[in-house]
Amino acid sequence: MKPALGTTKADNLSRAQVSKLHSSLANTTFQANRTLAVVGSMYAFASRLV
Fold first, then answer.
1. Domain containing residue 37
2. In this predicted structure, what is the pLDDT of residue 47?
3. Which stretches does DSSP call E strand in 1-50?
4. Number of DSSP helices (H) and strands (E) in the chain, helices first
5. 31 Cβ partners below 8 Å, 6+ apart?
6. Does any domain span residue 27?
7. Which residues are within 8 A (CB) of 28 and not within 5 positions of it... i.e. 6 or more apart?
8. What is the pTM of this model?
9. Cα(14)–Cα(36) distance, rounded to whole angstroms?
């Protein structure tokens, strides 16, 4: 994830950036879906802390 998203802070990360990352992993569907799940989990966890 880091090479694709760089140093983008979570509050500045857009759906378009996550979608682009997911699409870039189209050849490895398992990895693409796991990456999407990890990003979603991180946001869900963060929302519980607020």
1. 17-50
2. 87
3. none
4. 3, 0
5. 25
6. yes
7. none
8. 0.80
9. 13
Residue 15: name the closest of 36, 32, 29 by CA: 36
Q: Is 25 exposed, middle or buried (0-12, 13-18, 19+ CB in 10 A)?
A: middle
Q: Is residue 5 part of a domain?
A: no
pLDDT tens string 16-48: 999 999 999 999 999 999 999 999 999 999 889
| Among 4, 28, 2, residue whose Cα is nearest residue 16 | 4
Q: Any long-range contacts for 4-11 (C-beta under 8 Å, 24+ apart)? A: 10/42, 10/43, 10/46
Residue 4 has pLDDT above 80, yes or no: yes
